Amino acid sequence: MVNHLQHLVSTLDRQNMLDHLKNFPQHLQTAYDLVDKHTFITPTKSINQVVILGMGGSAIGGEMSVGLAHDFGKVPFFIFRNYQTPSWVDQNTLVVAVSYSGNTEETLSALNQAIARKAAFIAITSGGKLSEVAQSAGVDTIIVPGGLPPRAAFGYLFMAQITAFWKLGLMNLPMDKWIRSIVQETEFNIHPLLPCEVGGRAFELARALENKLPIIYTGPGVLAPVGIRWKGQISENAKMLAYHNVYPEMNHNEIVGWRQMPDLLNKIVVVHLQDEDDDERVSVRMDKTGRMISRLSGGIYYLQSHGSNVVSRMLSLVQLGDFTSFYLALLNQEDPTPVTAIDELKAYLATV
Fold first, then answer.
1. Angle formed by the axes of helices 60-72 and 224-238, to 10°?
2. Is residue 307 a part of any domain in this protein?
3. Given 37, 45, 177, 252, the catalytic residue
4. DSSP letters along 33-71, please?
5. Tell me, what's the pLDDT at 198?
6. Which of 167, 236, 239, 244 is catalytic?
7. 346 annotated active-site
8. In CA terms, which of 89, 93, 124, 167 is 20 to 30 Å from 80?
9. What tens digit of pLDDT does each residue of 168-216 get?
10. Global pTM?
11. Active site residue 236
């Protein structure tokens, strides 16, 4: 089985997604160093809210930043994945425009609106039009290394954001104290996830999800954006649908839907992502709901985060999901990297 899996890697992973997953800890360290050395000129004394703009792989770091801001933010944090910014964005808003390519049309459109409303902004990108706009405006611009699929640049984009928020005094995250353990712990997480570890959790979970419809359930806290990451990675890497919802909200509607179309329900595998800081009542709901739907579903899994701090714990499940989606791609006989449907849509949009 090990030789077969390694053969699949060598024949299907033609654009080296596995290398990007293995380099994730280095991406985190590089982004931290870039931002830590940056001298910020953005005034934050009058800032009373933060709005993050991004799409797809460039947005998930913002989702996780917003999740962290619930407990560590000094002002409200929001994320918008859209062409527009809300009407309340003003001169007291810090807008963080995140686009790995620098050419994401939705992000550029929303940023132009924010600029018209006199909002302060900073940019995180590898180049493109966003870099040009930001540098022309003379605002803080964090240029991360380019050349990756945006979803594989998550380490750069996420770490750049939370380090910037720490340095700007907008989040109470002690990044200078945590960065070493974050990098070391994400490095430690990798070996059990590699192709040589066929009995590892990522590969075994991928086998359980093969030819199934994954639904990722989380609590509403820091793991909610991790669930969004799982959904996106399974879709883009494995080229199969996946869905995500949160407790306790799903207990007020979705749980009732676990009744009709039993043949479909039996094709659904539920993955619960759990964290030590989950609300006790949410944990009770997860346990009972899992028992209620287990006889109808194709399988129920509970996965616990681990790490010495909340960022490490979030990233432990990000890594597990990323590797699981990678192996799912191989089991589906897919190259994990290409996203031809997105490319086709972008090509069409460029003509209209």
1. 170
2. yes
3. 252
4. HHHHT-------TT--EEEEE--GGGTHHHHHHHHHHHH
5. 62
6. 236
7. yes
8. 167
9. 999 999 999 999 999 999 999 999 999 876 668 899 999 999 999 999 9
10. 0.97
11. yes
